[in-house]
Amino acid sequence: MNLISFLLSPPSGLTIGEIVLISYVLGLMHGATPDEHTWPITFSYAIGSYSTKGGMKAGFLFSLGFTLQRALLTTLGYIGLAYFYMKYNLDGPVYIIVGIVMAVAGSYVLKGRYVHLPIDLVLGGKSHHTEKAERIPLHEAHEKEVPLKMTVVHGLIAGFGFGAYATIITFILAPEVGSIYLAPIPGLMFGLGTMTMQIMFGAAFGSLLRAKRLTEEQVKRVARRAAGRTLYYGGMAFVIIGALVAAIPSLDAFAISTGVPIPNLNALDIGLVLVLIVVGAIGIGGLIKSYYEVKATG
Asked: Which residues does 104 contact at the CB level (< 8 Å), separation at least 6?
């Protein structure tokens, strides 16, 4: 049995140390491959942070929420309550909810306010107008930074998405730990592995703009516009795809094999299509468009 087969089909009778190691390595693989529940969100917030340090923070905060949810998931797997994932397809609803949260965050960045939802005060924001008598709209008086705190919310929501890696840690590794108190460990280690890779990718995404000869102010403007567009329009893409999957469940089974024996790389499916749309078309396209807009206006 080769290493990939061993990781993707772990045998029974594993020690807790082996479970910890396998879970962490699976998390590394999950974070390194184009997963629709991680890459689009990390890319959006990391770009918006316009720095290596900020990108790392975005990757960390997103993965923190994701890790907490995965620890809960493997606990449910141990006590047998994760069966509903086998019975029901939650991809559509999860895509829709993730998309709504992305669009809300994107609206805040682009328009200076959240989309018709009074959640800015809850998240530590301010009112929509300054205290000046002329009532200047807030987004004209204050520049809006990308709200990194939202990445934790994204991570918690995205963690409800279920794929090949989640199946392994929930239904194969979690039942092997031998105690309810140890049940969160596979999910925790999987989340930490994902976090490791997301911090690295976040740093790379966040430092992209530093490669161009822009002033600090120009970098901030490009970053905000690109991140806002990716979150806003990428969120819409998630909602549309989620609605289609919910209405036509067979779409979620669509897959064209690539011949690569690694989940997230093994097929061209709805998940990979979402990554290509949000990160590739909307994200990279928005970044290029924002760059030329800012260069043109100085």
From this structure: 114, 115, 117, 119, 235
Q: Cα–Cα–Cα angle for 171, 90, 260, nearest 5°? A: 65
DSSP the chain: --HHHHHHSPPSS--HHHHHHHHHHHHHHHHHS--TTTHHHHHHHHHHHTSHHHHHHHHHHHHHHHHHHHHHHHHHHHTTTTHHHHHS--HHHHHHHHHHHHHHHHHHHHHSS-SS-TTTTTTT---SB-SSTT--BHHHHSPPPP-TTHHHHHHHHHTT---HHHHHIIIIIGGGS-STTTTHHHHHHHHHHHHHHHHHHHHHHHTGGGGS---HHHHHHHHHHHHHHHHHHHHHHHHHHHHHHHH-GGGGG-EEE-S--STTTSEEEHHHHHHIIIIIIIIIHHHHHHHHHHHHH-
CA distances from 111 to 15, 105, 138, 145, 230 (A): 52, 10, 9, 11, 14
Cα 263 to chain center, whole Å?
17
8 Å CB contact between 170 and 73: yes
CA torsion, ordered 24, 28, 30, 36, to nearest 10 deg: 130
Average pLDDT, the chain: 84
Q: Is residue 112 within 8 Å of residue 136, measured between CB atoms?
A: no
Average pLDDT over residues 149-176: 88
CA distance 144 to 125: 10
* Angle between helix 91-111 and 39-49 (nearest 10): 10
- pLDDT, tens only, 225-276: 888 899 999 999 999 999 999 999 899 888 999 999 999 999 999 999 999 9
Q: Cβ distance 245 to 251 under 8 Å?
A: yes
